Amino acid sequence: MDVAATIKKFGLEQAFNYLYKDPEKNLRKLMDWADKFAGGEFAPQRKAIREAITNPDHPYYSYIRRLVTEVDPNVMKTLAVNLFINASLAGWSRQEECRKKYDCNIPWTILLDPTSACNLHCTGCWAAEYGNKLNLTYDEIDDIIRQGKELGVYMYIYTGGEPLVRKKDLIRLCEKHSDCVFLCFTNATLIDEDFANEMLRVGNFVPAISLEGFEEATDGRRGSGVYQKVTKAMELLRSKKLVYGISSCYTSANYESITSEEYYDSLIRMGAYFIWYFHYMPVGNDAAPELLPTPEQRKGTYERIRHFRATKPLFAMDFQNDAEYVGGCIAGGHRYLHINANGDVDPCVFIHYSDSNIREKSLLEALQSPMMMAYHRGQPFNENMLRPCPMLENPQRLRAMVASAGAHSTDLQSPESAEHLCSKCDLYAANWAPVAEELWKENRAAKAKEA
Ligand code: SF4
Q1: What backbone phi and psi angles, to 5 degrees, belong to 182?
Q2: Could you tell me if the CB of 331 is within 6 A of ligand 1?
Q3: Ligand 1 pocket, 160 CB below 6 A?
Q4: Residue located nearest, by CA, to atom 5 of ligand 1
Q5: Closest ligand 1 atom, CA of 389?
Q6: Which of the chain's termini has less CB crowding within 10 Å, N or C?
Q7: Which residues neighbour 56 within 8 Å (Cβ) at sequence distance 6 or greater?
Q8: Nearest 10 degrees: CA dihedral of 11, 17, 23, 25?
Q9: Phi, psi (degrees; rounded to nearest 5) at 408
Q10: Quick check: CB of 390 below 6 Å from ligand 1?
Q11: In the chain, pLDDT over 90 holds for what percent of residues?
């Protein structure tokens, strides 16, 4: 880490020590200092944070106080330093350097599947059938992180399979790479007291718990009794003062319930700090395209999530409709890539076409491979940020990239051709386009008014 980042890390740690002495008084004081030292920089952001800190009617007024008083101070400090100083400040400048030097995408985060195994048998999920056949070894994951850090990557996200089947290895990796943040998509049923204590000890592990909605929807897909186990894990994490969030996929069947006020309020009550929404993707030979939301359903989802983001103390990200904040599609190493349990380096967690395997190529070589370079050259895939995806909203782009790169399907269970996948998106893309154009015009007009 460079000298400036070390000084900022020390400054941030000191600021936290000061804050914890008297949170209510010192929150405002810290904001005064930030204003004084910012020298005119980040004025709109500082104004928004001040409003959230000082206005009791602001939705983030209670959220910020929860972070300060209901999260273990060491966890809070570790996450803040690793996320803001290592992953964002020092990491970002190293990534920029490497982007220029190697003339390819360099990611901000890497998604990894430690295992194909899972302890549940969810409807429509390949992992249950696939079982414990594929794993990245501890040394392989360690080496991916080592290579990632050389490129400035300090944020790692586990998917699967169920990553917590490998919880001992994951904790060892947290210890070894104590300067990184590890986010983990999990069904939460393997979170117990011992594991929560380990999370407290390392301080840099954050679960994102998968929920389909309320009890009926969750148990309907994941099995009877799973919802109760998940809510028990949420309660345990809350009582241990740990940070966790939720991951929910919206479909034509559940979009209303998982974007309802009742759902938000229940998650806030149970101590969640964030929710990541994913749009259903018709990936795989057994996908169910009828679960794709209609244009009206997607528009309603977009509006509700934005409404609650501005009114509820729960930070919500909508992976498919928030591309405007990250400049479009973030895959192909632009901001992230995905490595499956077989070592295949996929451009995206939903796009299983690759020409590289981490057992045969370095991370940098994979980023310079034809498939990743096709992403690099093609991004953004659409000027309309509500149509970011080369598969879902621009399927002709994915067909062309897979063909030009000669990439093969890396689907672990049933390889699917790009033509088969993209043909499920053609009608969706055509129907969504006019609605997205209208919505994007409104979005731009509202932003212009705010400016
Ligand atoms: S490929 Fe599609 S789903 Fe993946 S990050 Fe890009 S826009 Fe999102």
Answers
A1: -120, 115
A2: yes
A3: no
A4: 331
A5: 7
A6: C
A7: none
A8: -60
A9: -115, 160
A10: yes
A11: 76
Residue with tokens 């009582």: 239
Long-range contacts of 93-99 (CB under 8 A, 24+ apart): 93/2, 93/152, 94/151, 94/152, 95/151, 95/152, 95/153, 96/152, 97/152, 98/151, 98/152
Q: What is the position in ligand 1's atom list of the atom closest to the CA of 281?
A: 3
CB of 107 closer than 6 angstroms to any ligand 1 atom: no
Dihedrals phi, psi of 277, to nearest 5 degrees: -100, 140
Letter for the amino acid at 63? Y
Q: Whose CA is nearest to atom 7 of ligand 1?
A: 389
Which tokens belong to 298?
């997607």
CA–centroid distance, 124 to ligand 1, in Å, is: 21
Summarize pLDDT for 107-121 with one digit per residue, the tens.
999 999 999 988 877
The CB of 348 under 6 Å from ligand 1? The reply is yes
pLDDT digits (tens, 9 = 90+) for 293-350: 999 999 999 999 999 999 999 999 999 999 999 999 999 999 999 999 999 999 999 9
